[in-house]
Protein 1
Amino acid sequence: MIMVKNLQFKYPGAAERTLRGLDFSIRPGEIFGFLGPSGAGKSTTQKILIGSLKQYEGEVQVLGKEIRTVGSDYYERIGVAFEFPNFYQKFTVIENLRLFQSLYAGPTEDPRILLAKLGLEDAAHQKVSQLSKGMKMRLNFCRSILHRPEVLFLDEPTSGLDPVNSKIMKELILEKKSEGATVIITTHNMQAAEELCDRVAFIVDGHIKLIDSPRDLKLRLGVRQIRVEYRDNQELKAEDFAIDGIGGNERFLQLLRQYPIETMHSRETTLEQIFIDVTGRTLT
Amino acid sequence: MSRLLSAIKFDFRFQLRHGFYGVYVLVCSIYWVLLHYVPTGYKETVTLLLTFSDPSAVGLILAGGIVLLEKDQGIHASLFATPLQLKEYLLAKSISLSLLSLSAAWAIHGFGLGMPDHPVLFSLGVLLTSSMITLLSIGAVVRSQSINGFILLSQLYVLPFTLPLLGFFEIGPSSLYAIIPTSGSLLLLRSSYSTLTAGQIGYSLLILLLGNFLIFKWAHRSFGRQVLRNQWNGGVQG
């Protein structure tokens, strides 16, 4: 679906390259996340993938075509939702969607059905300027999938959303994946990446430091232990046990029998901690 | 073609929604009142100058205003992440504003002098001048950060295009202004009350088409460099 080899890019007038030889591929139907701090190069990578920066070096193929050669018909096949949900403010939700719909030659979704799916049917005749941030973000997503794109690029899809809207957005993204779309996410939000992405790439200083699935990373780089918190009289205590052979661990079994257990968790690490360990950088 | 038509249709609605047409009807009404008091002997000249300086040049302020409004609403990044091409975007602005100019020019002329002698030539003069000035305005606005900056810069850019007015008032040899496309505009507008030779018609159309072509190329390059690059940078960080 997407194949990138030795991708390098330098902005005009910049002293150094922003991208310094990226290699990666993204499979059809995958949710792939680019994680990295501001200025790491993840958004430049996305700009190249969506065809807005064509003066790159190396090979970048999306949907079987080299990006520097694609024309406007490329946008019939990809959807892009930027971090800032911008629309014509004096027009209603449905008017905005109908305008964008009219710019596609291929088949498109019925905007009213999409709005209903995203819980925005009651806002159809409201001006965009009257919508909340959460509603605008959902509308932004709606616009990006209006033409049934095969590849979807989402920039910080959960940025600025409250937990309820964030959950709705994640469900929508997973639904697009289940329909067969390939989704590329650019984000600082490790939790969203952990919940959504099949694989993530850590980008720092124009290099990809690591590509793997969040689950495998957490298992491989985490501590294989279980922490048990229990109440001994009134005192809260905690003990750690190795996962391997835990069924025969007498002390562990004794704790379970003897004390009221308050919590019991495996101690795999977080994606954020792995990022810090691997790159030596934080995401801020 | 259907994408261009969609863009034109939406531009009309955008201009209507932002109240541009309401303001323009008001401006035309003021012109009608003023023309009513112009003595008959001067009416032709005043109407021609009015048509040249306002309907034909309406795009100078409006096109810039529209692009600034769109820029302010951050719409360009989303718009150009669709199959819409920059050339279609520019043509839609140019065509929609030129048609507005044409309506205003006919309204003013119709009230001041009645039906033009050569309506097709008169209409072509308004349309080609308006589209050229609209594109000039877009090339200027992408270099401006504020409405005040745009107004100053657009006046500077349009200044050379007003020089043929000196020729119209017989100040200096008219051949001096022949390379400026608006010389063709003045000739075609004059067709509303006088007859042009075939050479004059050919020259006027040719110089205006050439002017449109060159300014379209310049506006296209300017917009691509100044607006789209910044919009992409604004849309996605890092």
Protein 2
Amino acid sequence: MEPARIDFIVMFSIATAVMLLLALSIILFVIFYQKRILSEQLKRQLLEAGYQQKMLEAALESQEKERSRLASDLHDSVGAMLSTIRLTLHPVVKAGNGQPLDQTKQLLDETIETVRRISRDLLPASLERFGLSHAVQEMCERINMSGIIEVQLSESGHKIEMDKKREVMVYRIIQEMINNAIRHSKASLLKVQLVWTETLDIIIQDNGQGFDYEGFKDHHNASKAGLGLYSIETRVSLLGAKLDYSTVFPKGSQFTVKVPTAA
Amino acid sequence: MTLIEYYRLSNYLQGLGSLLIFFLALVYSRSNSFREIRVIGIYGLVSFLFFLAQKSVSFIDATQYLNIIGDFFVLFETSILLFLYYFVVKNAIIRTTILTIGIIFLVFFTNYLFSDYKGLGSEIRSYRDVSMILFSVIYFGLLLRNPIEQRLFSHPMFWVNSSILFFFSCTFILSLSMSYIAEVLRDDFAIFWAFRNFLRFGFCIAICIGIWKARDLSKRAELT
């Protein structure tokens, strides 16, 4: 082979190899740089999500504290004052000075009961003292006594001790779901099931008109309305739980929340 | 296998690659939200038609090699690929640059064809390669400036752009020295051209992967 030909082939090979290496290095640079950008974006998103979660936790905690303060103020001062008024009124009623005083006493009894109810709703004392199951049972009994709707509560599995903060959040979820069913479902029967396994499964089923959950979410996400559902979803996400909705045949709806018992 | 057989094999392979691009683009362009696939499909079709034209001429007269068909292919190839970049890039300055480079190429090609036609076209091929390298690098730059959310490997234009950068970078030296090879190393021309054809087959396969990725993305988009 002539030297000029060999020289050309060598030069050609080197130059082509250099071009090839340049092209490859550009492609590799793009791949790695894009990976780095994406991982940085992911880190930032995780940080933001963590920060938002902490903000939400703090907001809910301060809400619970405020509720607790209001409940104890209502119970200890307004409730106590009303009870004192009732006691001072008792001898006058007994003396038999007439019907208007009987009506006043009845009104006062109703007011005392309303204050107690509001206080209980704000912070159920049984939740603090006897735990979640008892508090839910008490709530169901109260609704049954009011006659608005029939609530059937059932519980199965071995109860697992939960952190008090988590218990309050679970209680609020159940409370909000029952309130929603009473307000919107037009149901006559509400079944509440607490199933303790490795998780706590809360199943709330009604025989009402049912509703388009996804459509409702899409519509209300834009308008920031549907605060009840929003607060349920916020608590569900803070608990690391999972919320599912399904329609019940022939009519009604069912919400299932799977709550991890440990944080 | 003799050298000529290698050359023929490489030639058929690159023709097959063009046909594959056209068929894949044809099948997936209807259900695809990536409209650039249609431009790539046109590129596949034009490449295959030029391959057929070149083959037909050599069947009629085996001793005759009409380089003018290859030269016109360079014109069409450059125009279609520049249009592809014009289509995918939304930046006004870059679009104007693409148009300017395209117009200069057209003037350059016309001038080459009518006044200084020597029949090998090292200049127009080098111009094409440099333009393609330039715009593929610019496209990557834009991709880094506005990173896409999905994985880079599942982005169709990543495959198409990488293959353009890779292929035209590798053939640039060949384009530059084409006239020299044809005049001085006439006997070795088939080796160099077989090298270019094998590279082009790889280039076509990478583009096919890009079309396939576009299909995957469209399917996922339909499911969600």
